[in-house]
C-alpha cells in the first residue's frame, strides 16, 4: 500500500512513514495526508461511486486485493484498471488475482 500511495503522490517510498497494521493504517495514512489537504477513501468495486468517478475523466487511484503471491496487495489504477504494480521495485509485479477495494485520494477543502 505504501508504495502505491507514494507512486500516486510522486514521492519516494521513504517519505511515507510505516502505516502500521490492520487496525491503524487508515488513520495513520489520513494523518500523513492531512497537511497535504487530502484524505484516503475506499469503496467496494460494485459501489456506483467508483464507476461514476471513472466516467469523470482521467481518474488515478489505488486498487487493493489479493496478490498472486498470496496476501493483501495494492497497485496503482487508472479508471478502474491496473497501470502499475510497485512490487517488486523494478515494476515487474504480477497484479492482483481479485479486487477488494478501490481507494481514492480526495481533496479536502480548507
What's the layout of helices and strands?
Elements: H1 2-9, H2 25-33, E1 38-43, H3 48-55, E2 60-66, E3 72-78, E4 81-84, E5 98-107
Antiparallel strand pairs: 1-5, 2-3, 2-5, 3-4
Mean pLDDT: 90
Instruction: Name the beta content range.
Output: 25-35%
Sketch the major β-sheet: 5 strands, antiparallel
> What is the oligomer described by this structure?
single chain
**Overall structural domain count:** 1
Order of strands in the sheet with most strands? 1-5-2-3-4
Determine Rg (CA atoms, Å): 13 Å
- Total strands: the figure is 5
Number of helices: 3
The general outline is: globular
- Distance between the terminal alpha carbons, to the nearest Å? 26 Å
- Classify the helix fraction into a percent range: 10-25%
Low-confidence parts: none
Order of helices and strands: HHEHEEEE
Query: Which structural class do the helices and strands define?
Result: alpha+beta
Fold and architecture overview:
This protein is α+β, with helices and mostly antiparallel strands and 110 residues long. The chain has one domain (2-107). The chain is built from three helices and five strands; from the N terminus they run ααβαββββ. The chain has a five-stranded antiparallel β-sheet with strand order 1-5-2-3-4, with helices on both faces. The model has no long low-confidence stretch (mean pLDDT 90).
Amino acid at each position: 500500500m505504501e508504495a502505491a500511495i507514494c507512486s500516486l503522490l510522486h514521492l519516494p517510498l521513504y517519505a511515507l512513514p510505516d502505516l502500521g497494521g490492520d487496525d491503524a493504517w487508515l488513520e495513520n495514512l489520513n494523518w500523513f495526508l492531512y497537511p497535504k489537504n487530502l484524505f484516503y477513501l475506499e469503496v467496494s468495486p460494485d459501489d456506483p461511486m467508483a464507476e461514476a468517478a471513472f466516467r469523470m475523466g482521467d481518474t488515478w487511484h489505488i486498487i487493493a486485493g489479493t496478490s498472486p503471491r498470496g496476501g493483501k496487495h495494492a497497485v496503482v489504477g487508472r479508471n478502474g484498471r491496473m497501470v502499475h504494480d510497485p512490487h517488486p521495485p523494478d515494476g515487474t509485479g504480477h497484479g492482483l488475482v481479485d479486487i477488494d477495494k478501490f481507494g481514492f485520494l480526495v481533496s479536502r477543502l480548507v
